[in-house]
Amino acid sequence: MKIIKYFLITMLIPFLLLANDDRPPVAYNYLAKKEVQNFINMMVRKYNFKRSYMVSVMKHAKLDRDTLARYTGRYKVGTTNGSWERYKAHVLDAETFRKAKKFKRKYYTTLRRASRQYHVDMNYIVGFMGVESKFGEYTGDYNILDALATLAFHRNRMKKFFKSELKHLFLFAREKGYNITKLEGSFAGAMGCVQQVPSVARRHRSDFNGDGKTNPWDLEDCIGSIAKFMHKNGWRNGHVVAVATTFKGKRFRRLKTSHRRTYATSSIYKAGVKPKKRFPESRAYLLKTRNRTHDDIWMGGKNFRVLTRYNNSTSYGMAIHLIAEQVK
Question: pLDDT tens-digit profile of 178-213?
């Protein structure tokens, strides 16, 4: 799924990241842009939207300077992704672990049903829910129309992607009967308890509570959506996710670390990395989480890569894994 490679930048929990500035969105004349007029023409011609509706919505859209600042200039850690230290402080804290256990108890029947239907580990579903929205508590307070209009029609490093997402926002709102001007989510237009950008909300929707509706803000629907995602991306129940290791020194530089490439385990062992318990697969992802004083090195299995298909980040996958370990 091509869209997944963008999740590093679009699906982070809103409370994890600090804003670049505190300036609120401001009025902006999008209709004066030829590019916007071309977009409106395309939506009318290709998707049968009423021109009056498109004009009315784009008149309503504002310029979100905070959102735009995150995607212009050189990429800086902390603007569209959090550091590992920030994950530890805001996602892997005692309060999150307490809420994770409470969430598992409260939704155990639903989690078990999802686990059985899709052959996935319910503890990792809990992990996803914790990292993405603190179990539905933080789903974002950015106006999605403002964010996506800003990123679709102002120069930034992912403009093409966001223009496509704006298109999907219009389609999503029409399909669901939502007021497009009222939807709220992350600074990059991700919405709901598992922070889906509009194209993903349309593609991977789930009516897991059986009410005849698919709702990105409904916790049971989100449980089903994540379980379906894990299954489609190759989760294998009972197989290894990640194993902690030891190595000499505080910082590890002997091999490149990444959740995108694997090494033969024999090569990893030769580099002085020793798993703290048996690692059963013949190849492994070599994963690093960088702390202020030292590195932690992990060996990841194929299941770890499934986690990062949702958000292309080692820290993201590791946060899910550590929450899952806490609630087992």
Answer: 999 999 999 999 999 999 999 989 988 899 999 999
C-alpha distances (whole Å) from 289 to each of 145, 275, 313, 314, 318 are 35, 15, 11, 8, 8
Instruction: Spell out a b/e string for 99-136, using b for 16 or more CB atoms within 10 Å of the CB, else e.
Output: bbeebbeebeebbebbbeebebbbbbbbbbbbbbbbbb
Tokens of 191: 């919405």
Please count the other Cβ atoms lying within 10 Å of the Cβ belonging to residue 323.
25
Residue 307 · residue 325 · CB < 8 Å: no
Identity of the residue numbered 107:
Y
pTM of the model: 0.88
Tell me the CB-side half-sphere exposure of residue 124, using CA atoms within 13 A: 31
* Ramachandran quadrant class, 298 (left: phi over 0; alpha: psi -120 to 50; beta: rest): beta
CATH topology for 2-79+139-203 is Helicase, Ruva Protein; domain 3 (1.10.8)
Give the angle subtended at the CA of 141 by the CAs of 135 and 144, to the nearest 5°. Answer: 110
Indicate the pairing of strand 184-185 with strand 142-143: antiparallel
The string of DSSP letters for 293-306 reads S-EEEEEE-HHHHH
Query: Domain 84-138+205-232, CATH 1.10.1200.30 — does that match?
Result: no
Pairing of strands 62-63, 26-27: antiparallel
| Cβ atoms 149, 166 nearer than 8 A | yes
Nearest to 82 by CA among 322, 313, 308: 313
Q: Where in the chain are all domains bearing CATH 1.10.8.350?
A: 2-79+139-203
| pLDDT, tens only, 68-127 | 998 986 545 444 456 798 888 889 999 999 999 999 999 999 999 999 999 999 999 999
| Helix ranges, 48-158 (H) | 51-60, 65-70, 84-90, 94-106, 108-118, 122-133, 144-153
